[in-house]
TrEMBL record:
GO MF, one example: double-stranded DNA 3'-5' DNA exonuclease activity
Marked site (Interaction with DNA substrate) residue numbers: H250
UniProt domain Endonuclease/exonuclease/phosphatase: residue ranges: 4-250
Gene for this chain: xth
Transmembrane helix in keyword set: no
Stored Pfam families: Exo_endo_phos
Biological process, per Gene Ontology: DNA repair
Name this polypeptide is given: Exodeoxyribonuclease III
DNA sequence: ATGACCAGCAATGCTGGA
């Protein structure tokens, strides 16, 4: 089976591209971020016609996440339990797949703008809360996948300019330590289980010909639990949608589980 | 040297993204 993640930067604008992509890549589940729309505007019928069930957690203008799944969804949890948050950034669900239940946690991690800022402090608090949530989720659901836009480039090789951008947003030691903490609780970065091309990125700035010059970051990730790790067969970034007219600035990431 | 793009909201200029 295949699970994918994609920050679409407005589902209202990107819906046709998402449907086109699903037609070409009929993944079993797709996690979306940055819907930028309320749940009453979520295009459920269009996804159902494409063969997917869906659970969404949206808000006006900003953020918003959703899970699409061919298999039935249950036990949907919105946001982080016990963490009071105005922003719609997390949705979790159990997928009843043919291979058994799979817990999918989909996050649109806080950007954080600039180290030292109030938004960065919120990012750190949010990451602390997410860690606690994931410990509980992992204890309850050994077969777990954490996906989304992490807004963290975990290592130097995940950035087009690791020296020039050292300790700037997405590159700080504090953010990378949070990412490492996720790995230490028994999650594995599926992309790095395989040999990958150098300068593999999942996001490119709209400005400065970022994509054309491959000046990007790898900030969209798929982490698998220990129970699922032996089943991971491939993990790739699909750069093709970034070449579309009116593209999202992010590309989809896809994991194949045996 | 600087800023350069895109989306939403709302009303033309701002916020936020990364």
């Amino acid at each position: 089976m295949q699970v994918a993640t994609w920050n679409v930067n407005s589902l209202a604008v990107r819906l046709p591209q998402v449907l086109d992509w699903l037609a070409a890549h009929p993944v079993d589940a797709l996690a979306l971020q940055e819907l930028k729309l309320t749940d009453d505007k979520f295009p459920l019928a269009a996804f159902e016609e494409a063969g997917y069930r869906a659970a969404a957690h949206g808000q006006k203008t900003y953020n918003g996440v959703a899970i699409l799944s061919r298999a039935p969804l249950r036990d949907v949890v919105r946001n982080i339990t016990g963490f009071d948050d105005e922003q719609a950034r997390v949705i979790s669900a159990t997928l009843d797949t043919a291979e058994g239940p799979l817990r999918l946690v989909n996050g649109y991690f806080v950007n954080g703008q600039e180290p030292g800022s109030e938004k960065f402090a919120y990012k750190m608090r949010w990451l602390d809360a997410l860690q606690a949530q994931l410990r509980a989720e992992l204890a309850a659901h050994p077969r777990l996948v954490l996906v989304g836009d992490f807004n963290v480039a975990p290592e130097d090789r995940d950035s087009y300019d690791p020296e020039g951008l050292r300790e700037t947003i997405h590159h700080t030691t504090a953010e990378r330590d949070h990412f490492k903490a996720l790995l230490q609780m028994g999650l594995t970065d599926a992309f790095r289980m395989f040999e990958q091309p150098e300068k593999s990125f999942s996001w490119w700035d709209y400005r400065m010909l970022g994509f054309q010059k491959n000046r990007g970051l790898r900030i969209d990730h798929i982490l698998v639990s220990d129970a699922l790790k032996p089943r991971v067969q491939a993990c790739t970034i699909d750069r093709a949608p970034r070449k579309n007219k009116q593209p999202s600035d992010h590309a989809p990431v896809v994991v194949t589980l045996g």
